[in-house]
Amino acid sequence: xxxxxxxxxxxxxxxxxxxxxxxxxxxxxxxxxxxxxxxxxxxxxxxxxxxxxxxxxxxxxxxxxxxxxxxxxxxxxxxxxxxxxxxxxxxxxxxxxxxxxxxxxxxxxxxxxxxxxxxxxxxxxxxxxx
Length: 130
Prior knowledge:
mainly alpha, Hydrophobic Seed Protein, Bifunc_inhib/LTP/seed_store, Bifun_inhib/LTP/seed_sf, Plant_nsLTP, Non-specific lipid-transfer protein, lipid binding
């Protein structure tokens, strides 16, 4: 076997290993989300109304609170929906970057008269949501 052939085989083995690890991570994430009926695009599009609040503070807008309350009632009866929504929200916050004020994220449910029964933060462990 020539050194070139051996190197090529090693590269393709690494590619297979990376592909298998990626697939395993994807399956783990999807199983954690269960059979969630809520879509990430819906959650993120609705909650974009809260972007100015979580960045600049002040008071959340009426449309922001309407979105928060609507999301709460949509996910209230399904743990898999709560977990899925959590991952979607974390992704949205990540896309907004370092301009997000962590204190406004944790205050948002209360500011919109929603009692989740658990604390919200940028670093929340979504899999641990009750």
